[in-house]
What does this fold into?
Amino acid sequence: MKSDLRPVDFFAPGVVGRERDYVAEVLASKKWGGDGQFSKRCASLIEATLCAHTALLTHSGTAALEMAAILAGLEPGDEVIMPSFTFVSTANAVVLRRAIPVFVDIRPDTLNLDERLIEAAITPRTRAVIVVHYAGVCCAMDEINQLASRRGLVVIEDAAQAYLATYRGKPAGALGDMASISFHETKNLVSGEGGAFITNNAEFARRAEIVREKGTDRSRFLRGEVDKYSWIDIGSSYLPSELIAAVLLAQLERQTEITARRLALWNRYHERLSGIESDGRARRPVVPPDCEHNGHIYYLLLNQGRNRESIIKDLRKHGIVTPFHYVPLHNSPGGLRFGRCCGDLAKTVDLASRLIRLPLHAGLTDGDLDRVCETLIELL
It folds into this structure.
């Protein structure tokens, strides 16, 4: 394999439709701030797609998680159960309320929160469970929702990676009490930065509108429902600009085609790399039969004893970017300071140390993908 081949990027956000036209339309208007026509069109499209009561655009998936933590009523000393194998935003949203993340181990098949371990982690201080749909594969939501209902817990979906994924025919983002979706440049649909807060709970929706607008009833004022707006509740500035919404709308309009292309690439990886799994060199992703994923991540779990860093380095020599993923939060300085564990999280530690992610984006060509596979097979 030549070392001077064109690089294969891990991700590459692309213009897929009318992004430039929509941004130009915003620039020519008098409305560049949040909650203009583009934001409203995006929210309506997301609500229709997810069959959701309310979708509110945010400047990031992180912002939506912070809103959910406020709406869950977290107070100092409260506990929230979550996986350690996740991005720091999942835990930070809890810690910012001075509550405590309680880390639970993951399933070895999907790398999602192990629903069988949640009940043992519940204490009198537990207020919520945050599930993370890793790689666009949903958690076992029926079991989790049933347990949460029985124990009086709020269920928050970190669906940052799972837009257009489903669980038993129901869309991710509309499976719990509240959800966060991300449109960061590394996601399936992108607006640079950006996200959305989702809920099917009318009470949460009413308060979310206030929390998102710096704790004011400004949205009611703009609708003519009150003659002035004032400070009502805690909150922050969680709105994205109309420029972000303009880019997002163009992406949402092509969401079906983008997802179909990613799924085709995912399936091509799965077929091309079947041999390294049957030979016992690495394990491919597992998607349970009750889940339909969205082609967000294609990863491999290298065999124990394999030098992951050496593989990643060798792939980079061939111009192929294949990063690992999360460093488990419970072993990080912040996790040790702010959280606690329930159990030894042995699967989290093991699986996180063996995972590599392969390039996957709508602009990836079949030829590039085949090159990744051929190089990997040779190296492994």
Remarks:
- The mean pLDDT is 96.
